[in-house]
What we know:
The structure is a single chain. By secondary structure, this protein is of the alpha/beta class. It has 4 domains: 70-190, de novo design (two linked rop proteins) (Up-down Bundle); 258-363, PAS domain (Beta-Lactamase); 373-538, Alpha-Beta Plaits, CATH 3.30.70.270; 562-810, TIM Barrel. 57% of the residues lie in helices and 16% in strands. The chain has an 8-stranded mixed beta barrel, surrounded by 5 helices. A 5-stranded antiparallel β-sheet has the order 2-1-5-4-3. The radius of gyration is 65 Å and the shape is elongated. Residues 1-29 have low confidence and may be disordered.
Amino acid sequence: MSEWTGSAAPPPAPWWSGGAALQWIVAHGGRRRAFQGGLVIAAMLFVLSLGVSLARISEQYRLEARIQRSGLWMAAQAQVELSRMMSVLHRHMLGDPDAGDAAVKLQYEILLSRLNLFSSGSGATEYAEMGRLQDRMPDIHALLAPVEGWLARLIDGDQEIDAQIDAALERLESLLRQAAQQLHLERQSAAADAMGGLRSLHWTLMGCMAGLLASVGLLLLLLRLESRRAHRMLVNAEAAARLQRQAERTLRVLIDSLPTMVSAYDRQGRYLFFNEAYARFHGLREDRLVIGCTPEALGVPMDAALELALGRQMPAPFMEFEATGANGEVRTLLATAAPVADDSGGAGQVVHVALDISDRKAAEQRVRHLAEHDALTDLPNRVLFANRLRHALSSARRQEECGLGRRSFALHCIDLDRFKDVNDSLGHQAGDSLLLAAAERMRACLRRGDTLARLGGDEFAILQTDVGEEEEVARLANRLVRVLGLPFVIDGCTVHTGASIGSVMAPLHGRSAQELQQCGDIALYRAKSEGRGRAVRFSPEMAAALTERRELEADLRVALRGSEELFLVYQPKFDLGRADPVGCEALLRWRHPRRGMISPAVFVPITEEAGLAADLSRLVLRLACGQIRAWMAQGLEVPVAVNLSAQHFAGDQALVLVQEALVAAGVPARLLEVEVTEGVFIRNADAAREALAALRALGVRVALDDFGTGYSSLSYLQHLPFDVVKVDRAFVRDLRPGYGSGVRVVDAIVRLAHGLGAQVVAEGVELPEQLEALRRLGCDSVQGFLLGRPMPPEELEALFDAGRQAAGKVA
Length: 811
């Protein structure tokens, strides 16, 4: 059987070798304690076996002695002597010379001596009957007490006393005979017990022998296990020594493979060890000429961490320092040093660790740059721009507090116009190119101390420092508008865009970054609302206007939650052939509780900017469909046209809104007409086509509003025929004498629409000559102030009733 060696776990031992027992013992206390416990168990087993054997042998001796005791013999001898006594008396009465007086006295004395043996013992009797005899000895003596006197009388010749002597001896004989019988039975029982004890003693001795053998075997096993343990300890010690040597080699390879520079020094600062990274950086070799020298002797500078650990014998925190490598390159190192205590706890060696963090420092600077700059244009982002804006405000405030006068600067908030259109039509790559080109143009307009930042999307901001007068702010803003208004060539395509700029002076219009940015946003909003492509400087009146707009937005939110402030009026449409009303257009109105009537041109843009377009459209559709149902209850079927925002057609929102309104009101889809402008195709042309096709499949009529004022109208009409094409009021306005071009344009629209199977509706008819011109051109329907202004539903109902009655009279 091979012995286990090495550091791995030993193989399992067979059951007969004690391996299982050893495993159990080891699992419950450890090898050493298991060995000591085994010795105690073996000793206890040995003593117990020996003690049990001696006790059982003593017990068997006692049983056998009980058999050999003389109780039964004494009883038998007493009976024999009694019989002899009675025989001697009988022969004495017959005159036998051998049974004379002396013989009678002698035999009586012998009988008494035999009886006295019953009471001669001092300990416990072996039989119960012997105890009873001893207890009755006083009665026996009392029985024999008169016998001696009677014998004297008998010897003297009194023959009559013989009967009394015989009676006493017979009673004694009866008593002895019973005792003998009982003692015989008890002796037989004791013999049986002795035989059983002998058999029990046999098995007990065998068990004790087995216990002795087991204890000896256990001792031998423990000695064998201890021997094996000692052997394993020796093998493990040798293996541990090998592992230690291997670990030392592995540790050396590991330390040499680390990019960290590791070195060790004695208490005088002399080299004890350094790894490959340290040697490469400082151009050293680990040999006898180097080990034992100080770093100064080899021209290696000592950093503060190493000096602290050597001088004060205390650990040094991580410290950064610059060191020149063997190649002459200056690198940034992060180092620490700590003393290693010797066996007595005193100051011993010092270990020094240094890590080259030059690349990490460069990466941190790069990360910091990325965190503060825009990834596309490499301009400062919102975070860095906000920091510079706060720094400019702090500098201006300190200069003013020091009495050096007011130092002004300007903030310009810039948005590129129509950037989303470029992004959607030419793609995001073209949009990125446009942003880069715009950034370069703006950067060319700035001075050295100015800051241009991209805040996100197409939002830019400029910090114009050291502004002496407001004209400087205006000149820079106008120059930016001019250069950004020039055409861009992006991927071979000429792109026309522009910029809206809101400018604010600091600290005139604000003494905090938040105030300045809010004022700049207000001026930018004004520039956009005035038609884009312009620069606007902030004024306090703009803030008041913005506050008013926010109040209107808040009031509009309240009105959309179910009040009766928002309501519909209906402008009728008339058939040019019969001059009868054929439908109407629903127009939304707002009766403000404090401001009175507010024009849709004011509050509709607010809803779109505030994200309330869907709520507003839902309200308009609900009111329109509810009115259609009310008219149907009165027997009128009036088609109603509703304008929907282009925002709803970028997905399926428009279809969902229309379906919800139709289902809620329970009206037929043919009585609802949805008017959309050509701007619906700007956001997502494919989604718009799908939404319009779904509406037409639902049965809803689709009208193209303001035809001719958008983009690529002919292409839209060709790919998705509309049910109705509405001629914009700008073309109807030109239907006057002397405006031949207006007639030709409307004529082309009518012919094109009819050619595609669509009806033509002209809006904004205010003059009779316009109505007559449209009739000659073949227009189907018209609407305008000339025939009917927007009216409440009751008036429109009356108008349709009048038309129905007139038609009945004609019929």
